[in-house]
Amino acid sequence: MSQATHDFAEQLSAFMDGELPDAEARFLLRRLEHDAELRAAWTRMQLASQCMRSQAWRPVDEGFAGRVAAGITQVPAAS
Q1: Residue 39, φ and ψ in degrees, nearest 5
Q2: Residue 73 backbone dihedrals phi, psi, to 5 degrees
Q3: What backbone torsions phi and psi does residue 34 show, to the nearest 5 degrees?
Q4: pLDDT (tens digit, 9 = 90+) per residue, 33-48?
Q5: Is the pTM value of this prediction over 0.85?
Q6: What's the CA dihedral at 56, 62, 68, 73 to 10 degrees?
Q7: Residues 69-76: contacts with CB under 8 Å, at least 24 apart
């Protein structure tokens, strides 16, 4: 994993925990659309998280990040 991807993986972790600010989350979701290595890291992190909680796990389709990003852009920014 490259250093840049590692940095984004740190952001993924914060995003999973609900601790990533909205602007950074939107940027990360856009990055996920274009970075296959980062998407693979996201999949692994989701799998690990689900396994640790002993929950059923199912991978999401390739268009998921794009749909989430589109939904976020439609939500008005908090003032």
Answers
A1: -60, -40
A2: -65, -20
A3: -115, -5
A4: 888 888 888 888 888 8
A5: no
A6: 170
A7: 69/26, 69/29, 69/30, 69/32, 69/33, 72/22, 72/25, 72/26, 72/29, 73/26
Confidence of residue 21 (pLDDT cuts 50, 70, 90): very high
Give CA–CA dist 70/54, Å, rounded: 31
CA-to-CA distance for 48 and 9, rounded, in angstroms?
13
What rounded mean pLDDT belongs to the chain?
81
In the predicted model, is pLDDT for residue 7 greater than 80? Answer: no
